[in-house]
Amino acid sequence: MPRYAYVNGTYVAHDEACVHIEDRGFQFADSVYEVVACINGKLADEQGHLDRLQRSLSELSMDMPVTRNSLKFIIREILRRNRLKNANIYIQVTRGVAKRDFPFPANYTPSSLVLTARSFQFDNNAKVKKGATAITVPDLRWKRRDIKTTGLLAQVLAKQEANDAGAYDAWLVDDEGYITEGSSSNAWIVTQDGVLVTRNATPSILRGVTRTALEKICADLKIKIQERAFTVQEAYDAQEAFNSSAVALIVPITNLDGHIIGTGEPGPVTQKLYDEYRLYADGRRGEFVKWNADLEDDIVA
Known about the structure:
Layout: E1 4-7, E2 10-13, H1 24-28, E3 31-39, E4 42-43, H2 46-59, H3 68-82, E5 87-94, E6 112-119, H4 126-130, E7 132-138, H5 153-164, E8 169-173, E9 178-182, E10 186-190, E11 196-198, H6 209-221, E12 225-227, E13 230-231, H7 232-237, E14 240-245, E15 249-256, E16 259-260, H8 268-281
Parallel strand pairs: 7-8, 7-15, 11-12
Antiparallel strand pairs: 1-2, 1-6, 3-4, 3-5, 5-6, 8-9, 9-13, 10-11, 10-14, 14-15, 15-16
Helix pairs in contact: 6-8
């Protein structure tokens, strides 16, 4: 079945979708993106992802390219045209087409909006059942990681290094030796005394929409969370570890840099949170939570 994409007001065959060579997203990575999961026909945390998209645009002095309701319609139409009920929807907004020059183009320059949808199998994921391997690498990214830009070269290099090492993912480590997040996810550990720990939300990380949902689920389940920096050694010594993201949801990390985490199997806290998040994504845990940036002013080690 042919795939369809949306490019600047037109639904086109995926193989024929294109943007101008002087689009600033192509020239400068002057653009932002979001990914929304559609699980069994239901959009998980759609509002939160659109809120974060709007916030990222605002931080770069860009406007939403269409109204919120129009964007919701386009998302659903892309799913309909591709006949998908389990998919990841990719949304990208750029500052538009202009001659190659560093300053922003004129205010009347229209932005570019691109959407694609790709089939994704959320059920029976082998990594969720068995766990995955990760490695640690230096965090080489810019200092505004709270903005979800398409400038992802450092993440590409980290993911490739993991791939070359036969690992699923890379956990990024700052100059002080603390883990910030995964190459495309938030990173979590469960300490020996059962406390769930994830990096505090500063400009050094992207506050995940899935992370926000997990915080609410943990509050409901009375699971204690500490939002703070944690070292690589703490991760090695943890009972459990996992990634969270809109694409893969929750993936247990059972081996980090060759160190077995806990028993080497997905732990009970991770498994419980995965099951509860699936209920949440299916709309069986009440309303979706509201996402907001909620950033601390300074990067805290």
